[in-house]
């Protein structure tokens, strides 16, 4: 793996930075994650990206992409994450689309990939259930064959963006008598289908990102199944590898460490500038080293994708390290800012760093749970990476 970028790649990074500066209009500070203002700002920016072809630059041209190298796409996503701009395109771009290219049939690819690439259709993920989180294979949402359709009944939870999604990709149990990993099938479902109900879940910060989704006698055409019947678990496993491959952890962490460093340089304590304290300098330096380690782990995943390899435990390494690093950064930042840092109201003019550290302290906790807990990631690393026996 080459850790240096070419001149063309560095020039492309500069082009991305200029594009973001000209086209990204963030929502007001008082906007909440998942609300109408935030979603509208994100969709407007993603539409500009789609027009330029950057949402799906690494996709094949026949599916609306540019056929670009995965490393270029990684550079793009790193820069958008650093700027706080949406760049992944959500579930459709980062997960459903790549998974369709691996497991979808030609009809499914032709129907869904162009609409995802154009930004026309947004997706949600129907995986977790109230009793099936880390042990996802224990899910109980049922799909029963009825003629040319399957009828789905059940419930999903922690469904990101379901209130703003057009379609949802859903794991269901189609054979209750089979071993739990072998009785699951994977469906693509229009959210406007009768019987689908979305109920919001508001977190302690007042953000609406998650939802509960209920399925009551929902009919989905059998042709909407991706992959083989009762083999959907393996389709989902491929998709989760794509979900865990992001460079956003290190990019966002780098931005936060830079802001904390600036705060320490500009703010005085009882003994002078905070940055002059040896303990604070060492703490910031250790976090910056962690950011670089996280960055290189994510670069490795992108390199594997550029070499037509599907990352597995390598993606888990990037995810577990990056998400836990986010917690360490937020914890250090809260201690550095002191009591005012606990403010989570961005509209309060007295909140240091626009209350981002207090909010980050709360938001980074679920970061080690979503997309597979740290415990699950370590199990994957141990068994698939190190070849250790299962307990």
Q: CATH superfamily name of the largest domain?
A: Butyryl-CoA Dehydrogenase, subunit A, domain 3
Please bin the fraction of helical residues. Answer: 40-55%
What is the total domain count? 3
CATH topology of the largest domain: Butyryl-CoA Dehydrogenase, subunit A, domain 3
Provide the β-strand percentage band. 5-15%
Low-confidence regions: none
Distance between the termini: 33 Å
Helices and strands: which structural class?
Answer: alpha+beta
Indicate the radius of gyration in whole angstroms. 22 Å
**Largest beta-sheet characterization:** 4 strands, mixed
Question: How many E strands?
Answer: 10
Q: Can you walk me through this structure?
A:
The chain is of the alpha+beta class and 391 residues long. It folds into three domains: 7-88, Acyl-CoA dehydrogenase/oxidase, N-terminal domain (Butyryl-Coa Dehydrogenase, subunit A, domain 1, Orthogonal Bundle), CATH 1.10.540.10; 124-232, Beta Barrel (Butyryl-CoA Dehydrogenase, subunit A, domain 2), CATH 2.40.110; 244-385, Butyryl-CoA Dehydrogenase, subunit A, domain 3. It contains eleven helices and ten strands. Strands 1-4-5-8 form a four-stranded mixed sheet. The chain has a four-stranded antiparallel sheet with strand order 2-3-7-6, with no helix packed on it. Helix 4 (90-103) packs antiparallel against helix 5 (106-117). The radius of gyration is 22 Å and the shape is globular.
In short:
This protein has 391 residues and is of the alpha+beta class. The chain is 47% helix and 14% strand. It is built from eleven helices and ten strands.
